[in-house]
Amino acid sequence: MTASITRSSDETERTPHPVSGGPIVQLPTAFGDFVAQAWTDHETGVEHLAVSSPNPSRSGKAPLVRLHSECLTGDVFGSYRCDCGEQLAFALELINAEGGTLLYLRGQEGRGIGLANKIKAYALQEAGFDTVEANEQLGLPVDARSYNAAAQILAEMGLQEVRLLSNNPDKQNRLAQAGVTVVEMVATEVPSREQNLRYLQTKKDRMDHRLTLQAEHAGNGKTPLAHPFDSIND
Ligand SMILES: Nc1nc2c(ncn2[C@@H]2O[C@H](COP(=O)(O)OP(=O)(O)OP(=O)(O)O)[C@@H](O)[C@H]2O)c(=O)[nH]1
Ligand SMILES: [Zn+2]
């Protein structure tokens, strides 16, 4: 429980970010049967949740890991303003099929600026600003997230070499700085929609997200993925 993280570049030892994990419990879900473990960040008091496949990876490759930043509007309400809810469903389906872990990072709402500020940023986007400009207009960082707690949780779970389910190269770099080796980036693009196309285009153009946004990939509501709520309403 006290694994230290070292910089791969210079092997300089750093003080581990203080986190602790609780008991591992069964978590049967609409996406399959998982196990869950809560983790507390003792620096911030924020509680995160690791949701893992109970079976070891069948591929023999490094474990699949998704770091999912909290998005109340997308994850809980199924908002189409962003791709978060559908990415969450996609990741859980893949982890159920292939094995792996989804670490749900709370306190990262709105790329770390918080829910109320994200909604203010939405208001600015409705006035014409893009998702980057909106944060800047609020005098806030474009991306205020830290992955130090996540890296330490992964280390304590024995996940220091991972295949990262993400389109965000910055996440890969920031994890590497925190001591986690990303051996492969696994795309997590879901079909775009009319309502989130500008947002996704901005992420591609201004935040270097690896998104194709190809016409056949752009569902625009015509080829929706299974939504988290679809299989719950039985
Ligand atoms: N500030 C702000 N945050 C947003 C907006 N739309 C979604 N978010 C937040 O963005 C975060 C998700 O980040 P993304 O950039 O979509 O994806 P990522 O996690 O960096 O990259 P992937 O791993 O590829 O999904 C969540 O915390 C959301 O709450 C927005 O318009 N403004
Ligand atoms: Zn979102």
From TrEMBL:
<comment type="similarity">
    <text>Belongs to the GTP cyclohydrolase II family.</text>
</comment>
<comment type="pathway">
    <text>Cofactor biosynthesis; riboflavin biosynthesis; 5-amino-6-(D-ribitylamino)uracil from GTP: step 1/4.</text>
</comment>
<feature type="binding site">
    <location>
        <position position="71"/>
    </location>
    <ligand>
        <name>Zn(2+)</name>
    </ligand>
</feature>
<protein>
    <recommendedName>
        <fullName>GTP cyclohydrolase-2</fullName>
        <ecNumber>3.5.4.25</ecNumber>
    </recommendedName>
</protein>
<feature type="domain" description="GTP cyclohydrolase II">
    <location>
        <begin position="25"/>
        <end position="186"/>
    </location>
</feature>
<feature type="binding site">
    <location>
        <position position="87"/>
    </location>
    <ligand>
        <name>GTP</name>
    </ligand>
</feature>
<dbReference type="InterPro" id="IPR032677">
    <property type="entry name" value="GTP_cyclohydro_II"/>
</dbReference>
<keyword id="KW-0342">GTP-binding</keyword>
<dbReference type="GO" id="GO:0005829">
    <property type="term" value="C:cytosol"/>
</dbReference>
<dbReference type="GO" id="GO:0009231">
    <property type="term" value="P:riboflavin biosynthetic process"/>
</dbReference>
<dbReference type="GO" id="GO:0003935">
    <property type="term" value="F:GTP cyclohydrolase II activity"/>
</dbReference>
<keyword id="KW-0378">Hydrolase</keyword>
<feature type="binding site">
    <location>
        <position position="131"/>
    </location>
    <ligand>
        <name>GTP</name>
    </ligand>
</feature>
<comment type="similarity">
    <text>In the N-terminal section; belongs to the DHBP synthase family.</text>
</comment>
<dbReference type="InterPro" id="IPR000926">
    <property type="entry name" value="RibA"/>
</dbReference>
<feature type="active site" description="Proton acceptor">
    <location>
        <position position="143"/>
    </location>
</feature>
<comment type="function">
    <text>Catalyzes the conversion of GTP to 2,5-diamino-6-ribosylamino-4(3H)-pyrimidinone 5'-phosphate (DARP), formate and pyrophosphate.</text>
</comment>
<keyword id="KW-0479">Metal-binding</keyword>
<feature type="binding site">
    <location>
        <position position="171"/>
    </location>
    <ligand>
        <name>GTP</name>
    </ligand>
</feature>
<feature type="binding site">
    <location>
        <position position="82"/>
    </location>
    <ligand>
        <name>Zn(2+)</name>
    </ligand>
</feature>
<dbReference type="GO" id="GO:0005525">
    <property type="term" value="F:GTP binding"/>
</dbReference>
<keyword id="KW-0862">Zinc</keyword>
<dbReference type="GO" id="GO:0008270">
    <property type="term" value="F:zinc ion binding"/>
</dbReference>
<dbReference type="InterPro" id="IPR036144">
    <property type="entry name" value="RibA-like_sf"/>
</dbReference>
<keyword id="KW-0686">Riboflavin biosynthesis</keyword>
<feature type="region of interest" description="Disordered">
    <location>
        <begin position="215"/>
        <end position="234"/>
    </location>
</feature>
<feature type="region of interest" description="Disordered">
    <location>
        <begin position="1"/>
        <end position="23"/>
    </location>
</feature>
<feature type="binding site">
    <location>
        <position position="166"/>
    </location>
    <ligand>
        <name>GTP</name>
    </ligand>
</feature>
<dbReference type="Pfam" id="PF00925">
    <property type="entry name" value="GTP_cyclohydro2"/>
</dbReference>
<feature type="binding site">
    <location>
        <begin position="66"/>
        <end position="70"/>
    </location>
    <ligand>
        <name>GTP</name>
    </ligand>
</feature>
<dbReference type="GO" id="GO:0008686">
    <property type="term" value="F:3,4-dihydroxy-2-butanone-4-phosphate synthase activity"/>
</dbReference>
<feature type="active site" description="Nucleophile">
    <location>
        <position position="145"/>
    </location>
</feature>
<keyword id="KW-0547">Nucleotide-binding</keyword>
<feature type="binding site">
    <location>
        <begin position="109"/>
        <end position="111"/>
    </location>
    <ligand>
        <name>GTP</name>
    </ligand>
</feature>
<feature type="binding site">
    <location>
        <position position="84"/>
    </location>
    <ligand>
        <name>Zn(2+)</name>
    </ligand>
</feature>
